[in-house]
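Chain A, query sequence.
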Amino acid sequence: MNQTNINFTPLIPSERIDSLDVIRGIALLGILLMNINGMGLPFAYSDPTIAGGADGLNLKVWIVNNMLFEGTMRGLFTLLFGAGVILLTSRLEKSGAGITTADIYYRRTLWLLLFGIVNVYVLLWHGDILYPYAIFGLMLFPFRNASVKKLFLVAGILISIGILWDVTDYHSKINLQKEVTDIQLNKDQGVELTKVQEEKVKQWDKFTTKHTQEEVDELIGKMHQSYFTVLFEKVKGNQFMQTWLPYRLWVWDILSFMLIGMAFYKLRIFHGERSNRFYLILLLIGYPVGLLINYYETRMLLQDSFAALTILKADQTYQIGRIFTTMGHVGLFMLFIKSGILRFLQKSLAAVGKLALTNYLMHSIVTSIIFYGDGFSLYGRLERYELYYIVAGLWFFQLIFSPIYLKYFLYGPAEWIWRSLTYGKKQRYLVPPVA
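Chain A, predicted structure.
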């Protein structure tokens, strides 16, 4: 077959899997529950004692997020990304694309990389997920035909390495604490410290010292200045997020879940084709185990006032709690979809999911206007619970806007650009008139 004469096109509406779109919509909206803290508060994403309030309703908001949503909405979204890889490549291969499948897949992934760079350096969201998705998406193509067993095995190995690294980091700091304690005893007895000992004391002080109020105020002041001041202030942090962090954290966190998502697609879990009993088991195993671990971590952090060493201690079980809680979410959401209840809401969530890239970038655009200097300069000015007024507003708008928009347009503007670039041809944008 001459592949050059075949017109390969993006997924058309009739080929979409509704349950995938609904869960993608839930995950997309859920991600904002966590992202809003990094968007609107300085240094306070995981430590509410630094900014945004650490008592009353503010603390309750942090506890609910840490128990139910920290890492799990990202986990759900990542599972769906992996599932989407199988959906795309299997459809292309069945249509006779052959080697062109790889061409389309890698072009699509590289353009996603560019979207991630734009989101970070133009739209100013330093916590962007598109860039690492593209980085690790480049590694997924060879796994498209792997067995479910192999996908779970590789994912398990990756997660285990990440956990082992977290455990090693914690015990390394425990050892440093012991050394510094001994060094301080010697210093108190009048023993002159060596340069190595002085360096270890500095390391420990840097590790345990929280951001001061002066540092918080300074960052808030910079975020209230012009667009370019904010952009350049973020450069160093952006470079950290896009270089060291992917290989310290994201490879174990994201790539593993992508592979599990590919396995889930092959097992038809996201299609809603498994029994209600299957999804109920996911829920009944996932939530008790995951929430118990999350409670253990949350209680420990609260009791020790978010001390740096305690945060590392909690990190040791973070991935385990995240995996099980995410599985609980999958079971709950699939039962919700299969039940058919609140059908109007499911349709709106599916529309949000179909416009996932556009809606995700919209989060960055809207929050940049709200928080930074060329907009309303609310960065660092709202308490943690007040940030969720913004979340509710964005949710309400996207749930209403997305289904209305899709009555007239086949894709969101970002999806349309992405697909046109991927397939090297301007795609149809308007919904064709009914004959």
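The chain has a mean pLDDT of 94. The chain has one domain: 15-423.
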